[in-house]
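FYI - complex with (5S)-5-amino-3-OXO-hexanoic acid, inputs then prediction.
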Amino acid sequence: MEKLIITCALTGAETTKLDNPNLPVTPDEIAQSAWEARQAGASIVHLHARLEDGTPTQDQLVYKAIIEKIRASGNDVIVQVSTGGAVGMSADERVQPVTLQPEMATLTTGSVNFGADVFLNPPQDIEHFAKLMKSYGVLPELEIFDAGMIRNALVLIKKGLVSEHAPFDLVMGVPGGIPGTPRDLLFLVESLPKEARWSVAGIGRAQLPLAAMAILLGGNVRVGLEDNVFYQKGVLAESNAQLVARVVRLAGELGREIATPQEAREMLGLKPIS
Ligand code: KMH
Ligand code: ZN
């Protein structure tokens, strides 16, 4: 099997320090958390930005500050910005960080209920995001919250708007999206093209079992406080790195080696960084 690519979703848009005081929110905290996650074994960090009071923002200047601090710390991790932002944001607001030309950005390929809200992704917005990513040379990661989104992603690939090598991320267990069960993971994986590279992001209590399944099935893993603030039932995670370190230990036991950022770049077809 290929080496395991671990993505760490550091912050998210919905979780707050009230949910877990260890959530990194300021650019300094996010860069520090990215460093610790990289040291623990993550090769990609999935970023969201916040204003000083913790409100989610897609302001490219805040993303720029975060990315500069990550690189200033000597961190070679692959940077993936969110274009999902927070529910209720406009498409123009959400897509801003793509213009910074990060190595990767998320691209959700459909709408889904999201708890009491709706994460709205109409077809014209999805195509607009895909075209912008293509023009800025940004590799999309296709975020799949429900089965129909795989079909939508394949249409984008067929239209030439997204590379056929773009990885899929199966986001499972969002209230309103596909449940985070082993059966549903097998169903989604079987629905992907044979050669597709994929990861799973299990939400909440689905994080650990789905990570273990992905390691065994040859997929990749996303963990982090965006998706799950707990280490185990009733016990808050101490850090993003703690969640990454557990996946590294599991992978070691199950015989999967961990990809470094440079190895992950080669696997994903990204240029090396100096
Ligand atoms: N915050 C969610 C509504 C992404 O980063 O691309 C969307 C999200 C997905 O987090
Ligand atoms: Zn996100």
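Residues 102 and 191 are 29 Å apart (CA to CA). The mean pLDDT is 98.
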